[in-house]
Amino acid sequence: MRQGDLLTIPLSDTDVVVAQVLRSRSGVLLIAVFDGTFPAHAEISFVGRNLDLIRLIAQTMDARIGTGNWVVIDNVPVSGEVPIPIYKVQAGPGSSWYIQDIDGNILREARPAEIEVLRIPKSFSPVAVEKAIRAANGIEAWQERFDDMKPGWIRAAVELIGSS
């Protein structure tokens, strides 16, 4: 897998959604799932298409690609407008919170306002990502655990950290 790879992910037997690999490292992927659905067997072109309408962002594994469930259809540059998650982590129980980037680098100690907005890093199984996609499209019930895949908190965190 390469950064920029566009994937189709099944939504149903007849429809797919498109996601893009934002980061890829040792089988771990950070993907953005775009708004909109496409017929499963249609040729999908992204020439001139807006790839900024992001429905979900999730860290997951590449296991569904190896099985052929998620199919690489193209590779296009990742937009600089796509928010990349920033997290909060602790060095141990009861210790201070720190800001961590997507690559695991500790940037600095987090301020109280940042602790409120940032979330703890989470990785989701490919099946959980598929369930979240179906829920986001009204096919399954939304589960609270999917909230960490919504891009709103990521955008808020990036804006807050960028302004401090």
Mean model confidence by pLDDT: 90
Helix content percent band:
10-25%
Distance between the termini: 34 Å
The helix-strand sequence is EEEEEHEEEEHHH
Number of domains: 1
Structural class: alpha+beta
Largest sheet: 6 strands, antiparallel
Q: How much beta, percentage-wise?
A: 25-35%
Count of beta strands: 9
- The count of helical stretches stands at 4
Low-confidence stretches are none
Rg to the nearest angstrom?
16 Å
Shape: elongated
Can you walk me through this structure?
- The chain is of the alpha+beta class.
- About 20% of the residues lie in helices and about 30% in strands.
- The protein has helices spanning about 65, 110-115, 125-135, 150-160, and strands at about 5-10, 15-25, 30-35, 40, 55-60, 70-75, 85-90, 95-100, 105-110.
- Strands 1, 2, 3, 4, 5 and 6 form a 6-stranded antiparallel sheet that branches. It has a 3-stranded antiparallel sheet with strand order 7-8-9, with no helix packed on it.
- The model has no long low-confidence stretch (mean pLDDT about 90).
List keywords for this structure.
20% helix; three-stranded antiparallel beta sheet; 164 residues; six-stranded antiparallel beta sheet
In short:
This protein is an alpha+beta fold. The chain contains four helices and nine strands; from the N terminus they run E-E-E-E-E-H-E-E-E-E-H-H-H.
Give the topology.
Elements: E1 5-10, E2 15-25, E3 28-34, E4 38-39, E5 54-61, H1 63-66, E6 71-75, E7 87-90, E8 97-100, E9 106-109, H2 112-117, H3 126-136, H4 151-162
Antiparallel strand pairs: 1-2, 1-6, 2-3, 2-4, 3-5, 7-8, 8-9
